[in-house]
Amino acid sequence: MLKKRYPYYLANRPVQANDHLDVLDKYRGKRATRVAFADAAAVRKAIVAAHRARDAMAAFPPDARRDVLEHCVRRFTARAEELAQALCIEAGKPIKDARGEVTRLIDTFRIAAGEATRIGGDVLELQLSPRTRGYRGMTRRVPVGVCSFITPFNFPLNLVAHKVAPAIAAGCPFVLKPAAKTPVGALIIGEVLAETDLPKGAFSVLPCSNEDAALLVEDERIALLSFTGGLVGWELKSRAGKKKVTLELGGNAACIVDEDPGASLDHVVQRLVFGAYYQSGQSCISVQRIYVHASLHDRLRRKLKAAVAKLPMGDPRDENTFIGPMIDEAAAKRVEAWIDEARDGGAKRLAGGKRTGNLLPATLLERVPRSCTLYREEAFGPVAFIEPFEHFEDAIARVNDSRFGLQAGMFTGRIDHAMQAWDRLEVGGVVVGDVPSFRVDNMPYGGVKDSGQGREGVRSAIEDMTEPRLLVIRTG
């Protein structure tokens, strides 16, 4: 059960503001809880407090940062079921998937705890000529300063973790704006952080309006903005001034099934179903486009159609539910409209059905026109389409025929095709032997083209949140 009301966190302290935000149970459509809602004045105070905390956070010893992160690991582990139930209610995520995300939250903080005491530098050989004899050089990485984080609704625990945990490891104070539709998980993280001895002002967690969050983008005291969400991220970047900007903006991920897939078709189908329909397709690396070699197309199509049609949909609290509600009815209507547009253009629906509120059945299409929205844009819902190809070169070209480039997957038993894909696919990551939806929390993660810039994953994020500082010593 959720609490009746959650405070926000301003400069490490809980605040029960007069203004509140209702958080809905996404399956039942009723209010589940209320959270304190910050205004522009609170956001400004958080930025000021974080700016004042820069020196204290930079001086906070690496072992102390590790201890904070390890405290979080212990507390999240102890509160794992509470976190999973909150996620199930506020995001509509099926309970099995919610528990999986809690595991990833814990993993991400554990990885960051290990990295906190491994942020090193380089020793430089400067004696390159008679002029530089007697000089020695070395670098160390120092925190950039205040970070602002804006996170989306679909992974309200782990996407927060991928910003917060590296910031603590790097020694950066931060202000976080969680998604207004799913703020509870971030506030529980704030509650746990408030139990630690982080310096005053080191963190704030503030549900607030997009208008009031403008300060997190534009304020010059902020050194780094990290945003995960939609294409509005590019507009935010244009307003961010001189600060560093990391953007993860999604995609319409593709998966290739080669003539020799290197695995049984049953295994390939199982992974495609997971990749396309896990948490109702509301993932930046959800499988949306499936390109299958013509020799396998009919068999895989038949198996995939049968598997998708059997996916159970309903109450996310039910242990057997695979397809839960989308985040709201407007999102479900949008995806439904894209499916209808594709069908009007000649696409055939192999599996799927009618929408009920924000519940949209898992949908599989074929013959989707390349001009339609579903082919070109990010669906962010439980829909995928299948298309045959004759030559591997054609499959590579079709994957690249997209404004996005986050991750791509492929099933192949040919190492030369795997290497060609790695060389030529215009994406941030290529996953061979699995779907593009695979992610481990220590790997570099991010995209190219309209999918964003920069990389997350704990070590990559720490590199963004620190900068090298050179020391030169003349010894003789």
UniProtKB/TrEMBL annotation:
<feature type="active site">
    <location>
        <position position="248"/>
    </location>
</feature>
<comment type="similarity">
    <text>Belongs to the aldehyde dehydrogenase family.</text>
</comment>
<dbReference type="InterPro" id="IPR016162">
    <property type="entry name" value="Ald_DH_N"/>
</dbReference>
<dbReference type="Pfam" id="PF00171">
    <property type="entry name" value="Aldedh"/>
</dbReference>
<dbReference type="InterPro" id="IPR029510">
    <property type="entry name" value="Ald_DH_CS_GLU"/>
</dbReference>
<dbReference type="GO" id="GO:0008911">
    <property type="term" value="F:lactaldehyde dehydrogenase (NAD+) activity"/>
</dbReference>
<protein>
    <submittedName>
        <fullName>Acyl-CoA reductase-like NAD-dependent aldehyde dehydrogenase</fullName>
    </submittedName>
</protein>
<dbReference type="InterPro" id="IPR015590">
    <property type="entry name" value="Aldehyde_DH_dom"/>
</dbReference>
<dbReference type="InterPro" id="IPR016163">
    <property type="entry name" value="Ald_DH_C"/>
</dbReference>
<keyword id="KW-0560">Oxidoreductase</keyword>
<dbReference type="InterPro" id="IPR051020">
    <property type="entry name" value="ALDH-related_metabolic_enz"/>
</dbReference>
<feature type="domain" description="Aldehyde dehydrogenase">
    <location>
        <begin position="19"/>
        <end position="469"/>
    </location>
</feature>
<dbReference type="InterPro" id="IPR016161">
    <property type="entry name" value="Ald_DH/histidinol_DH"/>
</dbReference>
